[in-house]
Amino acid sequence: MRDKRFISEIEKLSPVPERLEPGNIEKKLYEKKRKRISVRRRIAGAAAAVAVAGTGAFVYLNNSHGDRNFERKTLDMEFSDTAAAKAGMLDEGRLSEMGLKTMSYDELYDYFNMYGAVQTKYSHIDKQGGLVFDFGDEENDADGTMSVTAALDEEMTTGAEHSKTYLQETGIDEADMIKTDGKNIFFVADGKLYAIKCDGGKMENKPIDFKALFGDEYKDMDVSELYLDGEMLTCVFTNSGRYDYTCWYDDTRSALDNYEEWSETTSAVSFDITDIEDIKAINSLSIKGGYVSSRMQDGKLFMTAQTNITPYDTYEKGGVPEFAPVYKSNGEKHYISSGDILVPENYSYVNDAVIIAAADMSKKSEPTAIRSIIGMGGSIYQSYDRLFAYSSYYDAGSDKAKTKVVAFDTTDGILLPAGTADFDGQIMDRYSLRYKDGVFSVAVHDSRYDEQQNYLYTFDRKLKELGRSESFGENEQIKSVFYKDDYAYAVTFMQTDPLFAIDLKDPKNPEIVSELKMPGFSTHMRLFTQGRMIGFGCTADENTGRNTGIKLSMFDVTDSNDVKEIAKEEISYADEADISIYSRAEYDEKALLIDGEKNMIAFPYTWTDYSDTDRMITHEGYRFYSYSDEGGFRYLGEYYDTGIMDYDGIYESDDIYEYKRCAYIGDVIFIGSDSGMVSLDMESFKEIDKIKF
After folding, report:
1. pTM above 0.90, yes or no
2. What are the structural domain ranges in the chain?
3. Side-chain-side CA neighbours of residue 365 (13 Å)
4. Regarding the domain with residue range 432-575, which homologous superfamily does it belong to in the CATH classification?
5. What pLDDT, in 10s, does the model give residues 291-307?
6. Quick one: angle between helices 22-29 and 44-53, nearest 10?
7. Which of 165, 200, 170, 190 is nearest to 180 (CA)?
């Protein structure tokens, strides 16, 4: 009953070269007492083998462009068949200590069936859609490597002084809608990517036509975010890719009409942008699933997607694992080995799964590692040698929300399970987490019925709990967290805005050492200059807690035991019921441009006047400030577009779009929306040039 084409995709096992024999890999695994796992960057296949070995499955990922189809047995290998297990790095016992296990696909089917997650299905997948990229033979260096300038090495940057993406952790690059190298700006608008040549304030728009690069396969793809690493641009794409189903029937079932199922795809493609008039594709990686998040470290991309693993009653044990998670590398389709699928013990939230893939985007090669975790959603946080996937879930036993965290060692691009933790409460966002000097810290909001509490937990590098703070901000919710040195700063809010300083010098005893109360609350905090921390958020009514506008706060954190708010700037219309103002930076922190060295603070805003009974007037723009201890926040200027719209949604003037990002090159500011980009003089904030998309 199964599609012969489907079976043929896994009929041939590629031979394992001598350098990937378990004995040879084993020698590499224990060099330097595992402080570093030696994996040569120029042997992408070996890196993949070591990574897969970490969870007990071995798949030889050939680095050539020939037939890479596998027999089914490569999807279900035992721990004893891996070098890592023989070396004692990881076995079933160690996984069990972490609260994890792996299963064969037959066992996974039984596991899903036990929780009622197996569904009736009257058809099978006819794989005509799905993961889309398929490159021809691009020419790289002899070893398949592209020479790439390190973006973090400022001495190698030839462009003018320019703004950079704010990074939560030094050395861990983050994607954004806007990137600049001091010469060009790359900007994502309405799912499309634009390369903009900048000559002072003059702009020349160079839309990047991915359809021309990829053909019709691009038609359903949207650019989501970007990385810029020297002369390599990496784009993260998302789409809702169509999977066509064709019917089949037997004596007990009637024939069904063909139907379609929509399934999201997350893809990353790297490009050589040495000449933006002649952009070349380098590498691609696609995962079946919706985009969650990503990070990049030393040219290696760590990309996460969320998918749904649903086995159907048509699955025949010992047969093709139709429900196996899927990925593509440079157009070649692969199934994830069952040994790379981690199942948290005592955790019954099946079907949903997170897939995490690591790949060197500077050359055409297979992923260096790929993992999936059953029952997980949420997001990721990454530090220098650890990646943490986290997800909240409801625990019926305690009748409250809990959080599960799974940690991975990311040394040399691997994803080796390093520990798990479960604790009460929910994580607000990734800024609530930090991993430093072997200590993992996390601030959580814990609520049950009418009781609300907040805690800060600490764990060791294996995610064994070390300590927990006293409850703080009772009956309030965490709004933002910022870590600096040995302290965590947490803002909670219900009607007023307490800012707590928590001393983490003794990880076994996190201690609340300071509390500062004020109206409003900060949704995001950053270090501005030494001893000065800036908070961006909302003004609020002290009696009702209702948001009334935008607020900037400057905190003196020189003495963390005595934190002070030394300046504030409020843009509030609390007394004017017909006027409202808000900023997308309240929920999208990358819309902020905060640069202490440049002494610039910029944020987007939307101002609307509803006083006219027939129409409303809206301003969409950016405001700019500087700061000094002597004068506090100083308003520098602003830029905005004006739109007039009736209450039926009809614009009387040109449609306007919300400005999403701000960057600078030299003394020129650039602000972008889905409709276009504007350049401004940094002194006068007057318009220099404006282009439309």
Report:
1. no
2. 1-148+231-424, 432-575
3. 29
4. YVTN repeat-like/Quinoprotein amine dehydrogenase (2.130.10.10)
5. 999 999 998 999 999 98
6. 80
7. 165
